Amino acid sequence: MDISLHYIKKGSGAPLLLLHGNGESGGYFLHQIDEFARYFTVYAVDTRGHGRSPRGTAPFTISQFADDLLGFMDGQGMEKARILGFSDGGNIALTFALRRPERVERLVLNGANLDPSGVKPSVQIPIVLGYKMASLFKAPKARANAEMLGLMVNEPRIDAKELSALAMHVLVVVGSKDMIKAAHSRLIADSLPNGRLVTMEGDHFIANKQPGPFNRAVLEFLKEETP
Question: pTM higher than 0.70 for the full model?
Answer without folding.
Answer: yes
